[in-house]
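A quick aside before the break. I want you to see a complete sequence-to-structure record at least once, exactly as it would be stored in a machine-readable document. Don't worry about memorizing anything.
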Amino acid sequence: MSVVAVGFAILLPLAPVISKNIAACYLGVVLVCVGQYPTNPAGSAWISGNLAGEQKRAMGIALNIALGNCGGIVGSYIFLDKEKPGYPTGFGIGLSFAIMTLITSSLLEYSYWRINKKRDALDADEVRAQYSDEELIVLGDKSPLFRYKL
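That is the input. The structure line, written in tokens, reads:
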């Protein structure tokens, strides 16, 4: 998403005078495309590694794919004809989404790291004495033995 943010940051100020900035705007579009296309598969991979339990994992992946595919709908309405060729609303929203994705994914990764650190301090034998194997399976990613992948 940092590549996407750089692409939108190039496009936002330069697109209104695109005829004088064709190469830079082309680079911005390429960066947005290069950065955006792998986000949905990467999100699905991250979700599949961090949700325990088959049903929860399947629903998480399906929700990620469904929401990721809604981006085309949003994109159809944020680039307003009356704003061409600069499209400040479209490029501004794109830049905002990229920055918010960077912030929220960083916060999520930090929270996973903190949870893992707390769980690492627990004694696995004590946890197994407190919970049966079935209870640990039912707990899924809430299990004290589950570790998030970073």
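Two observations worth writing down. The CA atoms of residues 40 and 65 lie 7 Å apart. The chain has one domain: 2-109. We'll return to this after the break.
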